[in-house]
């Protein structure tokens, strides 16, 4: 079998066989196929798509590209939540401690930023000393001890996803349904949790822009999860504008901590609670009303915050930052972006905001690039807010004093006009 022929067949719209899919996944992991050929194949998949059979074959090839996690020594039900990627989406940092504080075990493997979207692992590195790569034994010990650990994808677990994910990030091949489904479900199945809840984003800032595509993606993921014997469901949620006010790594962790303290933005809190309810419900912890009461109480009582602090300490992080967020890295420079005229904010394009934060240094443009943990954006006005010419609509932060491109992107992202109709954040549930 030759990689050249696989690329050519996909380029010409053919359906790849399971053998061809296994061949390129294994070959890439073993370093027998160069990344330029995989990049070409990813682009062919991007344009020609994959059938459900091909998508399932790719998911299983990714799952089987390394070891399967043996989590049998973690006591209790293990659950995970995974998002298809959003801007300002720090819900994992809120949801995981809520459910962990209620006795669900969360052994979470998260990713880094992808394209214009942020990644939980990059965010957690804003906590000084926080180790995202403990060995498997330590990882499981932490989960058993404090109920929760969040680590980067290990090299041994679904290594194909880690490699493909990094390549897609820099070759403009992220927003492809089969590549997203196989990436998410390949690693989730390798991680072998009992319960999987997916947050499938839809809208301008999501990889799937239309509700139809988001539904298809959600259903494919849920079906694959269920077929593999996992309790799986998905919420389709709006990502036409950023979630919360903060975009960028340390800024987002601070906002997540605010939410855990009960002072978070209402959209972030609403979505985090809904995802936590979904997890508790699939874990059999009561009906939806009971699960809702449990999650609200976890925030109100401070138990979820304690859970987060316990994880930070167990993973070597500086717990003082949780109680005093002024200890997070701060950017040297800041710049106000101001409204150009009076009116209501009618839209804040999430993808452009994500790109603006990448321009400020918060994301990557080439594989492995280091990022500025303090860089990012704090929005000062959200969709529906009334602003006047000259009002500050956002503050940009960076350690490079070069804001022109990001400011321009943010101004283009923010439309001001007549009072808009309010959109629902949580659009539907897919089971
Ligand atoms: N999240 C993932 O894990 N993979 C994708 O491809 C997109 C979002």
Description:
By secondary structure, the protein is α/β, with parallel strands linked by helices. It contains 17 helices and 13 strands. It has helices at 3-11, 18-29, 35-48, 52-63, 92-101, 120-124, 136-146, 159-170, 177-191, 211-227, 249-260, 266-282, 288-300, 303-314, 320-323, 350-359, 404-413; strands at residues 79-83, 106-110, 148-152, 195-202, 231-238, 246-247, 333-338, 343-348, 376-379, 386-387, 392-398, 414-417, 426-430. The strands form 4 sheets. The chain has a 4-stranded mixed beta sheet with strand order 1-4-5-13, with helices on both faces. Strand 4 (195-202), helix 10 (211-227) and strand 5 (231-238) form a beta-alpha-beta unit. Helix 2 (18-29) packs parallel to helix 4 (52-63). The longest helix has 17 residues, at 211-227. The model has no long low-confidence stretch (mean pLDDT 95).
């Amino acid at each position: 079998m030759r990689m050249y022929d696989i690329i050519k067949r996909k380029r010409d719209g053919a359906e790849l066989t399971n053998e061809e899919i296994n061949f390129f996944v294994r070959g890439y992991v073993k370093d027998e196929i160069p990344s330029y050929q995989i990049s070409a194949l990813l682009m062919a998949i991007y344009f020609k798509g994959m059938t459900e059979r091909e998508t399932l074959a790719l998911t299983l090839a990714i799952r089987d590209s390394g070891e399967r996690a043996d989590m049998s020594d973690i006591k209790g039900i293990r659950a995970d939540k995974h998002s298809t990627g959003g801007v300002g989406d720090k819900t994992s940092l809120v949801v995981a401690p809520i459910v962990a504080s209620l006795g669900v075990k969360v052994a979470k493997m998260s990713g880094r930023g992808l394209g214009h979207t942020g990644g939980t692992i990059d965010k957690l590195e804003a906590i000084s000393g926080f180790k995202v790569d403990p060995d498997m034994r330590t990882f499981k010990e932490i989960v058993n001890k404090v109920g929760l650990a969040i680590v980067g994808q290990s090299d041994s677990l679904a290594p194909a996803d880690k490699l493909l994910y990094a390549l897609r990030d820099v070759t403009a091949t992220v927003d492809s349904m089969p590549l997203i489904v196989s990436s998410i479900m390949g690693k989730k199945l390798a991680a072998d949790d009992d319960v999987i809840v997916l947050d499938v984003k839809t809208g301008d800032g999501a990889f799937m822009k239309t509700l139809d595509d988001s539904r298809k993606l959600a259903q494919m993921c849920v079906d694959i999860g269920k077929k593999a014997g996992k309790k799986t469901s998905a919420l389709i949620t709006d990502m036409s504008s950023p979630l919360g006010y903060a975009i960028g790594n340390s800024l987002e962790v601070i906002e997540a901590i605010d939410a855990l303290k009960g002072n978070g933005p209402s959209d972030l809190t609403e979505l985090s609670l809904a995802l936590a309810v979904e997890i508790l419900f699939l874990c059999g912890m009561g009906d939806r009303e009971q699960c809702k009461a449990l999650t609200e109480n976890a925030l109100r009582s401070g138990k979820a915050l304690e859970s987060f602090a316990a994880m930070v300490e167990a993973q070597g992080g500086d717990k003082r930052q949780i109680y005093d967020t002024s200890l997070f890295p701060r950017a040297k420079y800041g710049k106000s972006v101001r409204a150009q005229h009076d009116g209501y904010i009618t839209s804040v394009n999430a993808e452009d905001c994500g790109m603006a934060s990448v321009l400020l240094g918060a994301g990557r443009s080439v594989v492995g690039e280091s990022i500025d943990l303090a860089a990012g954006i704090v929005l000062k006005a959200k969709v529906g807010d009334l602003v006047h010419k000259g009002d500050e609509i956002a503050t940009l932060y960076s350690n490079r004093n070069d804001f022109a491109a990001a400011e321009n992107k943010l101004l283009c992202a923010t439309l001001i006009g007549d009072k808009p109709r309010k959109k629902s954040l949580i659009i539907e549930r897919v089971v």
